Amino acid sequence: MSIYAERYRHAKERAAHSKTQLGIFESQLGFELDTFQKEACRSVEAGRGVLVAAPTGAGKTIVGEFAIHCALTQGKKAFYTTPIKALSNQKYNDLVEQYGEDAVGLLTGDTSINSEAPVVVMTTEVLRNMLYADSSTLNNLAFVVMDEVHYLADRFRGAVWEEVIIHLPEHISIISLSATVSNVEEFGAWLDTVRGSTDVIVSEHRPVPLWQHVLAGKRLVDLFAEETTVGEAADALSNKSDDAPAVNPELLKMRTHRGRPSRARPRAPHQRGRRRGPRDRRGAALNTSVSGFSSPPSMPARISRPAMIETLDANGLLPAICFIFSRAGCDGAVSQCIDADIRLTTEAQAQTIRAYIAEATASLDVRDLKVLGFYEWREGLTRGVAAHHAGLLPVFKEIVETLFSEGLIKVVFATETLALGINMPARSVVLEKLTKFNGENHVDITPGEYTQLTGRAGRRGIDVEGHAVVMWRPGMQAEQVAGLASRRTYPLNSSFRPTYNMSANLIAQFGAERTRKILESSFAQFQADKSVVGIAQRVRKNERALEGYTASMECHLGDFTEYARLRRDIKELEKSVEKSRKKLSLSQSIASLQQLVPGDVIEIPRGKNRGEAVVLTRAESNDDPRPSILTIDAHIRRLDVRDLVGPIVPVSKIKVPKKWQGKTPKERRDMASRMRKALYKNIPPRERAQNTWFDHKESPDYAKLEQMRQALRQHPCHGCSEREDHARWAERWWKLDRETDGLRRQISRRTNTISQVFNRITDLLASYGYVEQGEDGSVSLTPQGRSLRRIYGEKDLLTSLCLEKGFMDALDSASAAAVVSAVVYQGKRDDGGLLSRYPRPDIESSITTLITQWSKLNDAEQRFKLPQTPAPDLGMVWPVYKWARGDSLSKALEGTDLAAGDFVRWIKQVIDSLDQIAHVSQQDPHLRTLCEASIGLIKRGVVADQM
Description:
This protein has 33 helices and 25 strands. The chain is an alpha/beta fold and 947 residues long. The strands form five sheets. It has an eight-stranded mixed sheet with strand order 4-3-5-2-6-7-1-8, sandwiched between helices. An eight-stranded mixed sheet has the order 11-10-9-18-15-12-14-13, sandwiched between helices. It is globular.
């Protein structure tokens, strides 16, 4: 083909493309789409669902925006769902700027703006509730964009994403946007199964290369010895390449050196061939090194947070996000920067920041500013540093996000929640440590978490490259950091399980039989069924191996299977007997120590006090008895249960004066001499000390063990010359048979697991009269069951049961809000228990009803083998009551460890729960009026400002 023909063909293709929706959309953007974006948009235009998996900052949301463009062009609706309200607000503002206020709406738990607009941004729970209510807002809906769809792995809220995917009508196209996960093909296959034609588009390309460093003291040290980005390291690690990047030897020297930290200045950085060091977008090389320390190698001291900021600033790595896995740590970091007089802004920038803060917080009550930590927070912002965590007021977080995106804030100290979709990219990301507290233990962060956190580094269109910096700590292993460099980093595992509310809604809409089929189409069941295939293959393989083992252990003298079982039973019983013996020995040792009295002469069998001794004082503690003794060589000691091998029995006695203290060596020697005389004269112990202790050999298990040993010796196979060879094969057979039985149980548990849980929930609801079975076998909701459909939350059934018992009937408005908080609130620490004092007697009565119903519900859940409903938490009863009564924020929070942001967040959830109860109570005007009045009392001040 001639060059002219080629040009003509390309021109014709461009002309045809420009007339497509994608072509029109591209022409409005002002930049060229990446390959993966074009592929995904073509799928959307063709009417297919699409799953897009790409790194943070790669531009996944452009696919969702194209779906919105298509909906508006077709005169249809598009919903854009997000996992958190902050992300919904951010996306709403972006779309309003693009399409105008009339075309875009916002629906979150506490906000409703233009809900019937052609484009509505919402949290995923709002869409789920719409589907169950069969809302008219769903009419004319063509596209649903599910941003951060990998959130369905969240164990608390993840099920909502699956509910939406399963229940959306088939004609609606779902555009799923996900982080890079290792089983994206599996998730795509499930979407294809439940939604029909779904294309999976995966991009692992980071538009801005990411370099990794370790901040050792005040020096930035490259993680890898060669020129290696995170993407290149990930490729090498995932492909198990022989050319895997070598860790910088300088970091290895730091780890292995055990001398005292040296304050010697390092040598000048070694200049490398291809690149003199990571460059910022202005081209200045960073002060990094791959050379060793000055001899001898030094262990760098950990630097302060202000010094860390100064180092980043000197290397041109600001703006930066520093992840600290602690709210207190984030606030403390800002305080440290203020104390160190860190200032990253000009006076003009500081004035701009003050003006923006004044405008954004004008509605806050001046009396609340101190308890909100406003003044120190503002001082940090004017200096260019800020904290970002869930304990801040929503308006404070929004101000931080806005000022950071405008480039006015240079450093944000954040918890990991910042990594969940908020659009706050930075030039560099700093990880203060590679461990975090997960609520129970301190655990290492996973490669997936590392990728999610460092994905914020590198601003597309601004930075040439991004930088991930890990702060060096004693004991840190560079290989561990290198191993975190990964791409498709973590599997997406379903957290879906039927709840009481979900079951009630599904029964009402579809009946029990169809509900079971719907539940069996969940991603959780899809994964379980898929895993069963592999497990079944392992079972068949094991069964073939067992046949071979059986043949190898055959004995010509008798049934060796029987003989091997007898040997194994003896071994298990021996373990049980020994465990019982130790337990008996310990309990009898403790009991004997508790019975010792002053004057008892004893013989200690082991330990540093071994030998004869006389008891001076009785044991003070029953749990850990440690009587005071005088040893035969005249030393005063404490006798511990670890010195004994069983109960200790006095062998003699002497008189110990009540006021004897043994302060002088002579007193101690005289007492030891009297003890030796008593032993020499064989003076008997006191009469009550002659206890008879139980011998473990008298137990039924010990007698049974002796019988089994006798049977073993008399078995025909006991005399076989190849007995031990047969026994080895028998041991292998037994271990494999036990493993195979476990696999069979797994298959049994995983087959139809979701529908089995639904059946148990249905049985429990029936026991409470919430469902009933018709003559034809169909299951339907009773009037009590229908009330459960409108109650959402972890304690949905408990709330419904308490409403039946009228636990709010005798309450006033303030008390009602306080009682409902016990159903909503879940503290971080499991303090548990009842309050020592309640605001009012009627509140205590209602809480008693709540606790009673919870206890009965837990018993029922245990009976029906269902997860137990968490206990009511009374940690918000007093604060909510004070707030409802009109107290100031500082007064409401007095005596609690609640952060102001947490208080506002929980109050908003109490408002949501009261609103649900009001809608459930359509036939009870008093209860509805009570709930509305309660909402009016607590929806004020700083709470109202944040809604």
